[in-house]
Amino acid sequence: MQEKILLNIDNPGQLEKLYRSNKPTFKSAFNDLYVQLRENPLAEGWYQRLNYAQEEMFWGTPAERTFVVGAALVAAFIAKLPEIFSIDPEFFYTRNIGFIIFPVLIAFFARKNSISMKTGAGLVALILAGAIFINLLPHKQGLPADTLSLSCIHFPLLLWSMLGFTFAGGKGHSEANWLGFLRYNGELAVMMALLLIAGGLTTALTINLFRLIGLDIQKFYFNYIVICGLSAVPLVATFLTQTQPAIVSKISPLIAKLFAPVALVILLAYLGAMLFSSKNPYQDREFLVLFNVLLVGVMALIFFSIADSGTKNSVQRLVLFLLSAVTIIVNGIALSAVLFRISEWGITPNRAAVLGANVLMLIHLLLVSARLFGALKKKGNLEQVGKSIVLFVPVYAAWAAIVTFLFPFIFGFK
């Protein structure tokens, strides 16, 4: 980043692009260079801009706060639809959990990035079409519905990709924007965890305080306060990450740096212990499911660590390369287990979906590992690794669309 700043120090437009592509890294690099640039008037202006300290925390404009409150009420209303209209909660939440969370987040970034009316209308149409499709999928009580479960699981991934598109300003597949979106996901997870901890403590304190005076408000509190609060947490956390980036800008890189080596050690120990365990993914279906959940979690950690601006030194690159290499082994075991189960007991919707996902993740991990190895050998840089990460986002979205919309028809709604 420092080299790019030096090359473009007299080009305000290019400096602005560099700043918007990665604000934390730009600020750190610029402050390191400021001693040799302080005679440049443009550099002085940038220094004052980057290091201006607000006297008090900025909580958005009144219009933004009003929008967040209104959108949170909409999310809470959607979450309470089963009670309002006497809908079976199991039917509603399994099919519509994604519609409680993602539409309000998409609306938040659509407003923030001034998405065009045409693009906004297209997003609304896609969300409504998905909602109609999911809720019209047939299911007979007492019969297995693997394709229904798969559609309900994969459709939120489509909504997530739509959120990424809106986060990027509706400008398509931009590497910088999608890496920024991955960083936002990590920061969102951190902020949501903090809010949930605070909410949990508040809930316990409130219920017990009322219990001390002889009032049992637990049922009412959970039915209204907790459900409505949970539906608003992602939106409130998003608002905080956008208006108070300093709150999590230092925490999330620290988490990425700490958890990557911890995950590597745990994964190696887990693979070693599995050799002496009586359970394995080849015979135990539940074990295979948990194995794939582990795989997705570690992949998410790798991608977030790479997207994080702090992943620069050689030790961190080595840890991420080793973690990705071990994850490839985990993926290979999972993939071979799926193939074994297909050869023994035939193809099913679940096995087909997991097989496709494992193949995509294996190819993606191989590509990312190759780029990380190049970065270790100084034959490449982390920007190339970032490109390899965002390259597969539309591929995953396409696979999710296939599982969501085509699998029910391919497998006869079984």
From TrEMBL:
It comes from the Bacteria. The chain crosses the membrane at residues 92-109, 115-136, 148-168, 188-210, 222-242, 254-275, 287-306, 318-340, 352-373, 393-413. Keywords: Membrane, Transmembrane, Transmembrane helix. This is DUF4153 domain-containing protein.
